[in-house]
Write a structure and sequence with these properties.
heterodimer, A: 149 residues, 2 helices, rod-shaped, B: mainly alpha, two-stranded antiparallel sheet, two-stranded antiparallel ribbon
Chain lengths: 149, 289
C-alpha cells in the first residue's frame, strides 16, 4: 500500500486540493455558464410556448370573429330583404290607394260636372221657354194689330 | 530515473517470490527492464507520479496541479464570456453551448427518469465531463511536458522536470474525482431512498443468497473508487506513454494520427467518467427489490 502511494505520488493534501479545485470549478461554471444558459433556454421555451399559445388564441378569435361576421351579415341580409319586401308592399298599397282616391275623385268630379251641366241645360231650357212664350205673345200682338188695321 | 530503478527492484522481488524454476525467465525480464531503462536514459522519461515543482503553504506544488489550474482558468474564461453574452437570438457559440448543455440535461432526465433530480445533478455531471475533456484535449498542447527545468538527480544523472503535465496523468486528480463521484452517488442514493432503504441494498438479512449478494454489492460499490480513478489515469497515461515512445522512434508525422486518436480517447474517457457516474446514481436511486 505504501509503495503504491509512493509510486503514484499520492498525497492527501493534493487530493484535497484537487477536490477543492473541482468544487471551485463546479461553482464557477454553475454560476457563469449553466445557470444563465439554462435560464435562457427556459425563457426561450416559455416565450415560444407563449407565442404558440397566443397564435392559437388569435386563430380561435379570428374564427370566432368570422363566425360572428357571418351571422351578422346573414341577419342584416335577412332584415334588409324583409324591409325591402315590406316597403314594397306598403308602396304598392299606397299606390293602389292613391289610384283609388284619384278614381273616386274623378268620379265625383264627373258626377258634379254632369249635375251642373244638367242644371245649366235645364236653366237654359227654362229661359228659352220663357223667351219663346214672350216671343209668342209679341207675335200674337203683332198679328192682332195687323188684323185690326 | 526513479521508475525504472523501482521496476527493476520490483521484478526481482516478484521473481524471487514466485521462484519459478526457469532462472532464464527472470534474467530475461531483468534484461528487458534494463534495456528499457537504458532507453529511458537516452531520452524516454516516464513517471507514474506527478513531479514536484515546488511547495506552497505546505502543499506540494506538482506540475499537474499547475496544469489543472490552467485548465480551470480556460474553462472559467470560456464560461464567463459565453454566460455573459447570452442573447435571446443565439449566435453560433451560444448555440453550441446551448445545444450541448440541453443535450446533457435531456439525456440525464431520460436516464434518471426524474427531471428535478436531473436538474440538480446537471452541474456536477457536466463539470465532470468538461473538466476531464478539457484536460485531455490540452494533453498535447505544445509546452505541456516539454517546458521544464533540468535538475541534478540524486543518482548523479540529470533529470528533467516538466513544469506542466497532463492533468489526468496524476492519480491524485483522478482519485479525487472518483472520491467526489463516490460521495455524490452515495449521498444521492441515501437522500432519495432514505438511509434504511438504501442500507438494505447492502445488508440484506432476508435470505442467505440475498446477504451474499448484498456483500458483493458493497464491495463493488467501493471498488468503483479504484476502477473510476485507474481507468481514467491508465488510459490517459498510456496514451501519453504511447506518444512519447512513438516520438522517440519517429519524431515527425507518425505521432500526429496517434495524437488525434488520443484526443478521441480523451473525449471517450471524459464521457465514460460522466456517464458511469450518472448510471451509478441511477442504480443508487433505484428501489431495492
Amino acid at each position: 500500500m505504501e509503495e503504491i502511494v509512493k509510486v503514484f505520488g499520492l498525497n492527501w493534501k493534493l487530493l484535497i486540493v484537487q477536490a477543492v479545485n473541482f468544487g471551485v470549478l463546479l461553482l464557477a461554471l454553475w454560476y457563469f455558464l449553466y445557470r444563465p444558459v439554462l435560464k435562457m433556454l427556459d425563457t426561450r421555451r416559455e416565450k415560444i410556448e407563449e407565442g404558440v399559445k397566443s397564435a392559437e388564441k388569435s386563430q380561435e378569435r379570428l374564427r370566432e370573429i368570422e363566425g360572428e361576421r357571418d351571422t351578422v351579415l346573414k341577419e342584416a341580409t335577412k332584415s334588409a330583404e324583409e324591409l325591402l319586401a315590406s316597403s314594397k308592399e306598403r308602396a304598392q298599397e299606397q299606390a293602389s290607394q292613391i289610384v283609388n282616391d284619384a278614381n273616386t275623385r274623378a268620379d265625383s268630379i264627373l258626377v258634379s260636372a254632369e249635375q251642373r251641366a244638367q242644371e245649366a241645360k235645364e236653366q237654359a231650357l227654362r229661359e228659352s221657354k220663357a223667351e219663346i212664350g214672350k216671343a209668342a205673345v209679341l207675335a200674337a200682338e203683332r198679328i192682332l194689330k195687323e188684323k185690326q188695321s | 530515473m526513479r521508475a525504472p530503478l523501482f521496476l527493476k527492484r520490483r521484478v526481482r522481488h516478484i521473481m524471487e517470490d514466485i521462484s519459478i524454476d526457469g532462472q532464464q525467465i527472470s534474467e530475461a525480464t531483468i534484461y528487458a527492464v534494463e534495456t528499457a531503462s537504458s532507453y529511458a536514459d537516452s531520452g524516454i522519461h516516464i513517471a507514474l507520479a506527478a513531479e514536484r515543482v515546488g511547495e506552497f503553504l505546505g502543499i506540494p506544488l506538482t506540475n499537474t496541479l499547475i496544469t489543472s489550474w490552467i485548465v480551470m482558468a480556460i474553462l472559467f474564461t470560456i464560461a464567463f464570456f459565453v454566460g455573459r453574452n447570452l442573447k435571446m437570438i443565439p449566435g453560433r457559440v451560444q448555440t453550441l453551448f446551448e445545444e450541448m448543455l440541453n443535450f446533457i440535461l435531456n439525456y440525464m432526465t431520460e436516464v434518471l427518469e426524474d427531471g428535478k433530480l436531473a436538474r440538480k445533478l446537471f452541474p456536477f455531471i457536466t463539470t465532470l465531463f468538461l473538466f476531464i475533456f478539457a484536460s485531455n484535449v490540452l494533453e498535447f498542447t505544445p509546452g505541456i511536458g516539454s517546458i521544464g527545468f533540468i535538475e541534478q538527480s540524486s543518482h548523479g544523472g540529470e533529470a528533467f522536470t516538466p513544469l506542466l503535465r497532463s492533468v489526468n496523468t496524476d492519480l491524485n486528480v483522478t482519485l479525487a474525482l472518483a472520491v467526489i463521484a463516490f460521495i455524490v452517488i452515495e449521498v444521492v442514493g441515501v437522500a432519495t431512498l432514505g438511509i434504511m432503504k438504501y442500507a438494505s441494498k447492502f445488508l440484506n438479512f432476508k435470505s442467505v443468497i440475498g446477504f451474499l449478494v448484498g456483500i458483493i454489492e458493497l464491495f463493488s460499490e467501493v471498488a468503483r473508487l479504484i476502477s473510476f480513478s485507474f481507468r481514467l489515469f491508465g488510459n490517459i497515461l498510456a496514451g501519453e506513454v504511447l506518444i512519447v515512445v512513438i516520438m522517440f522512434f519517429v519524431p515527425y508525422l507518425v505521432p500526429v494520427p496517434m495524437m488525434l486518436f488520443e484526443v478521441f480517447v480523451g473525449l471517450i474517457q471524459a464521457a465514460i467518467f460522466a456517464l458511469l457516474t450518472l448510471f451509478f446514481i441511477k442504480i443508487a436511486i433505484t428501489e431495492p427489490h
